[in-house]
Request: fold
Amino acid sequence: MARSIYLDNAATTPVAGEVAVVVQEAMLGTFGNPSSPHTMGLEAERLVGEAREILARALGSKNHEVYFTSGGTEADNLAIRGVLAAQVRKGRHVVASAVEHAAVLETLRHLARMELCEYTLVPPDGKGIVAPEAVARALRADTVLVSVMLVNNEVGTVQPIPEIVRRVKEQDPRVVCHTDAVQALGNVPCRVEELGVDLLSMSGHKLGGPKGVGSLFCREGTRLISQITGGGQEEGLRSGTENVPGIAGFGRAVALAMENMEARTAKLRQLQRHLLSRLETIPDSHIHGDPLSNAPHIINVGFPGVRGEVLVHALASEGVYVSTGSACSSKKAIHSHVLETMGVPRAVLEGSIRISLGADNTLEEMNIVAELIGQAVMELRRYQRQ
Reply:
């Protein structure tokens, strides 16, 4: 049987068996429209309500503060566009970190080109951490939103969100604080009272759920203007018939993640540390971020003298699946904006790969992967010198 070691879980995760069953049952048995007043509609509405309650429990929020979307990208867009539309009298300035996902950065760039917003990007330090005081310094009188992700999708850096929110609110309590928690949910605590945020984005397929479903936590009292209008679903904030099978699957995935979070993250941390110890023995390897405080499932490592995309393909030919960075931009001929803004030298940046672990990975696989990476790096460097 051919080898297959999947280490691209930050891009997407395998759907859990229990989740697939829930999705199928909803598709085949609970196919009513949740807005319909009859029994079949009420049953579909019940599934949506149960999933909403599960997410609220995971976040420590109220049920009515959880709104379903088509994924993390839509949740980020709703947060940014919705706040700007609601706060137009105060201003149109947004502060974000320079290491945000494209769902945030490209949205800001697009809105700025349309002259609908102005934005300031706060760079991180060499480990990828954004300083709370730097975020506070970037605030202006017309700032309406601050957006800093909880866990970076490329490097795994965990940002000091509670302190960032505290600094921002002390300076201007009217500023809305948003965090993209797509890589965080199920891997690090996401309790909204502890984080202090007003808005928090999530996605189903990053923790064993189906693709095409996500959610936005919106704290009670935070004003957002809907960006998709129509039938008034999701309390008028996000119109469109709900994706009942996806939402039901998302709910089950979150429930499973919360039930097993402590044991699973402990295992991921063990795998991460073991693989790091092996990767650090490869000559001239560079571990990005802060491995001691990163999220437990992401490793980003660079090998000067090697092209990252070539290394990815070399490993794929051996049945090992990693990536060069964000799945949303890895097919484009661009370098990682995250590593670039962290000040990573060009030669190291170009030879960097992201390894993202899953709960099904094993220590034996880590040994195999480290050996294969070491061999591939040596061969590619030798080829480059010829």
Summary: The CA atoms of residues 11 and 327 lie 5 Å apart.
